[in-house]
Amino acid sequence: MRISVRLPRRWATATALGAVLLTTLLGTPPAQADPGSLAAKAANPTVSIPPTGSHGFPFLAAAEDLGSFGYTESEYFIAGTATSYAKSGLWGSDGRWNVRTSGRAAYKSRLLVRRPADAARFNGTVVVEWLNVSGQLELSPDYWFARDELLRKGYAWVGVSAQAVGVNGGLGEIKGLKGWDPARYGSLVHPGDAFAYDIFSQAGQALRTPDGPDPLGGLTVETLLADGESQSAGLMTTYANAVQPVSGVYDGFMVHSNSALAAPISGDLGDILLMPYPSRIRTDLPVPTLVVLTETDVPGASAARQPDTDRVVRWEVAGTAHGDQWAYDLGQPTVIKSAGTAAPQPDCAAGSAPYNDGPGHYAMNAALHHLAGWARGGPRPASGALLNADLRDPATGLAAGGIRLPDVAVPTRTLTGARDTSGSGVFCGLYGARDPWNADTDPWDRHDAADPSDPAFPPRAEPVLSRLYPTHEEYVGKVRAAAQASVSAGHLLPQDATTIVTTAQESGIGG
After folding, report:
1. pLDDT of residue 41
2. Are strands 71-88 and 98-116 parallel, antiparallel or unpaired?
3. Which element (helix H / strand E) includes 113?
4. Which H helix or E strand runs over 48?
5. Percentage of the chain surpassing pLDDT 70?
6. Which among 191, 7, 223, 32 has a CA at the least distance from the CA of 122?
7. Rounded Cα distance, 139 and 343, in Å
8. CA 155 to CA 115: how far, in whole Å?
9. Could you give the CA distance from residue 161 to residue 155 in angstroms, rounded to a whole number?
10. DSSP state for residue 147 in the 8-state scheme
């Protein structure tokens, strides 16, 4: 039985993204420190080792065996005095935003560190992820999306507890780190999200020049990349535009699944209405920014489109979703290990379409690889075509345009960034949908024979796999060609191309 995934696309996307982003929270010259009011660089916090606590492991400790990948996991506290910022002058859509200091407060937060056990395996790049708190507890979505590239290429990854909800708790059942394990985290202090930006800066400083135990165990940092997904991407947009010119801490930015509206610099949710719309990435930074958008994100983020430059590149990836099956399968065991039954769930209605299982993780692997090289002075990542999530192929149901990796270029199912959310929870719409095709019937013939006035008239002609791919060899050949084309275009890594072709060879598709 075919599962319908039709819905008013713009309404579903706006509702889902709005729910996530709103829970957080005339051009100007390049940002500069106002004389006498801003320090030139972020402060260097003190680093310490947390107590064991009642659980005996950090919140969000990996459920998988990192040792089998040659990795270790550890946790550190950072403490100091954080600065809050306010707008200085007029902020426009070009992202060239000036700031002034507005306050100072003591804080104590934490870093979750995963790094190669053998220093010889470290590739010199540290990915610093602004942990996401949309679910009212901390999650690491970009670690899950890019985990294969991180671990196979010897990156270090650091998750930062930058926001107050993660530390102090919010509306969720788990009242932050302090509520989850008072014995371990009871000494943490978060003065509010106005200070989150500087806490994130100081986290980077602690990795470069640790004052106390070295979170990286003596590894030499060559490249420090800042990263954030979803709500954290909105904060990352504001950080790159307003704080990076002041702090100079990071060497590049990954902005994954942001919207057209950046997070307020004040940390006050109500001030989001005072942010420039659209909020674009400033193009005058000396360090690069790569924006990666899924099909779920594009309708709500398209207003902030901007031409690619030598400092900013934007990817819009067809057939992908804001959250997907890959990230869920990889991340959920880790979340359950810490949160148990309080772990956030997509909460999709029973019988609704399965989650999107498209190529989002492959795109993020490639994005990380190319951003790291770009930040080290290498070539700019390749551009990609714009995606039109509202224009869909009548035969395949796939969106038009965008970066089209093999799952989309040689399709075996319909992959969308949106879904019917009737009877579902607020996060369900972020997981997109997949619509498996039935190889045993011929819906094209059924479509041709149907009465268009009949409510049951199929909305599109659903392809038959055997018609698209008469032989298994032909199917594998098309996948191999599409994979090579994506590698040549700079949107897919060779290791992932090999995985994709091997999967095609082992499938029964064709004939």
Report:
1. 74
2. antiparallel
3. strand 98-116
4. strand 46-48
5. 87
6. 223
7. 10
8. 7
9. 20
10. H
Q: What pLDDT shows up at residue 275?
A: 97
Question: Checking DSSP bridges between strand 252-256 and strand 46-48, what pairing results, if any?
Answer: unpaired
271: tokens are 């001030």
DSSP 139: B
DSSP state of 403: B
pLDDT in tens, 291-308: 999 999 999 999 999 999
**Residue 115 clears pLDDT 80, i.e. is over it:** yes
Tokens of 51: 């107590």
> Please, what is the Cα angle at 73 between 72 and 76, to 5 degrees?
135
pLDDT of res. 438? 64
Alpha-helical segments (H) within 138-190: 141-145, 147-152, 164-168, 176-180, 182-185
Instruction: State the DSSP string of 211-264.
Output: BSS-TTTTPPPSEEEEEEETHHHHHHHHIIIIIHHHH---SEEEEES--SSPPP
Burial of 192: CB neighbours in 10 Å, binned 0-12, 13-18, 19+: middle
Q: Predicted confidence band at 232 (pLDDT cuts at 50, 70, 90)?
A: very high
Q: What is the pTM of this model?
A: 0.90
Q: Where are the alpha helices (DSSP H) in 265-359?
A: 298-301, 325-339
Buried b (16+ CB within 10 A) or exposed e, 159-185: bbbbbbbbbbbbebebbbbbbbbeebb
Question: How confident is the model over 431-449, as pLDDT tens digits?
Answer: 999 998 865 444 333 334 3
- Single out the residue of 292, 436, 290, 260 nearest to residue 361, CA to CA: 292
Q: Compute the chain's Rg from CA coordinates.
A: 23
Domains defined for the chain, CATH in brackets = 9-90+98-344+358-375 (3.40.50.1820), 396-506 (no CATH)
